[in-house]
Write a structure and sequence with these properties.
With 291 residues, the chain is of the alpha/beta class. 47% of the residues lie in helices and 14% in strands.
């Protein structure tokens, strides 16, 4: 399976505290119309920590049904409890997801040996391809290069990593150490082009919730050899890439989608609405981009 291209880390729309399935359906249709290669329901951007087990499975199932094989569905199934991650990954596989995205366990800060055993246990419990997800800024730990190499060697269905550590050098290290077929995806919109330049094959994007066609085109241009056009798109949307993280993700992304009339900006506690100064800043950025 190839993960080359642009994939959207979907927000989970809420209205009056409940999952808004109609807004979710339209969001996915917009992604597919924009040329996105895949969608990720219930990742970090999907507010996975605030969804209960039944809601989590409902969102994954909805994504699979709506996508209907028109793009990849990479279900977020990570947890800091190995047993729960196994349960969620099995359920996503049963629902028909094409792959699973497994974030590094957060809060309990396992050793690298613990990380290895965690991901190996999950991989052995399913057949579905697994994308590791290293984001030390949220988890407090990273999946070490050496641990990634061990997992790639020992688990045939661990085939990719989403790298969100903010370091081009780290992508260099991964690409040098891993087999050629193991795929690396950018986890930061503003670093997609630099990561592609040293061996990544695509991005799992937040910005593509709002501008799916632009992000898809940027990656496609680069992979097809037209780096100048890719850079033009990157430079145009760089302010948006940065401003979507002026407050915790996905608060700014949902605000932007609400401005576009796509959904309510509602998030679940402990997340909350943006501060007035940041509302003004993001509003001005959206206006300058014609959004």
């Amino acid at each position: 399976m190839t993960f080359a291209g642009a994939h959207t880390a979907l927000v989970t729309p809420f209205r009056d505290g409940q999952f808004d399935d109609q807004a979710f359906r339209q969001l996915i249709e917009d992604q597919i119309s924009g040329g996105i290669s895949g969608i990720i329901p219930v990742g970090t951007t999907g507010e996975s920590p605030t969804l209960d087990h039944d809601e989590h499975l409902r969102v994954v199932d909805a994504a699979v049904q709506i996508a209907n094989r028109r793009c990849l569905v990479i279900a977020g199934t990570g947890s800091n409890a190995t047993g729960e991650a196994i349960s969620l990954t099995r359920a996503a596989e049963k629902a028909g997801a094409d792959a699973a995205l497994l974030v590094a366990p957060y809060y309990n800060k396992p050793s690298q040996e613990g990380l290895y055993r965690h991901f190996k246990a999950i991989a052995e419990s399913v057949q579905v391809p697994i994308v590791l997800y290293s984001i030390p800024g949220r988890c407090g730990i990273e999946i070490a290069v050496e641990t990634t190499v061990r997992l790639a060697s020992d688990c045939k269905n661990i085939v990719a990593i989403k790298e969100a550590g903010g370091s081009v050098e780290r992508v260099n290290q991964l690409r040098h150490a891993l087999p050629a077929g193991f795929q690396i995806l950018s986890g930061d919109d503003s670093l997609t082009l630099p990561f592609l330049s040293v061996g990544a094959v695509g991005v799992i994007s937040v910005a593509s919730n709002i501008i799916p066609a632009a992000v898809a085109d940027m990656v496609r241009y680069y992979l097809s050899g037209d780096s100048a056009k890719a850079l033009e798109i990157h430079l145009k949307y760089y302010p948006l890439f940065k401003d979507l993280f002026i407050e915790p993700n996905p608060v700014p992304a949902k605000f932007a989608l609400a401005r576009l009339g796509k959904m309510s900006p509602d998030v679940r506690l402990p997340l909350c609405e943006m501060a007035p100064a940041n509302v003004q800043r993001l509003t001005e950025t959206l206006s300058r981009l014609g959004l």
